[in-house]
């Protein structure tokens, strides 16, 4: 059975009743087929590599003489393939290089775009932070000015209150002294109080 990659992909195994999974014998048979085909492909690959090496080294002429009549046809077919292979390889390499260059250019463009976006976002964040900082400083300055004016008011109130209290107490002392002298008693200041 010639096995193709599509055969491997589309292979369907029958489910087994009374247990999970596929029929182990069917799976083993299919894997055996894969192994046989794979070994054939590897052997053919090695044979073609040997023929190519012999052709490139110039040993193709003695091989032609020793082989039967049908054998030279594959060697002749190998010659155009061998000649076409470097051109095809060069085309594939050129295509791969072009794709690589495109991907690198695309990556560089994305990198530059991301860097530009990050710088823009960073500038915006810094600007917002500076604006908020200035607003907070202005707010704190207003609060400080308000607190300083309250402190000044309280100090003035304290000074005025002390002055009023002192004048009130002094007035009461004078009244006390005047009432004491009019009544004939000793003044409080002479008692040592």
From TrEMBL:
Name where it's found: Cytoplasm
Instruction: Give the matching InterPro entries.
Output: DivIVA_domain (IPR019933), DivIVA_fam (IPR007793)
> Keyword set for this entry?
Cell cycle, Cell division, Coiled coil, Cytoplasm
Origin, by domain of life? Bacteria
Pfam families on file? DivIVA
Where is it mostly found?
A: cytoplasm
- Signal peptide annotation: none
Q: Which family does it belong to?
A: Belongs to the DivIVA family.
Protein name per UniProt: Cell wall synthesis protein Wag31
* Source organism of this protein record: Microbacterium helvum
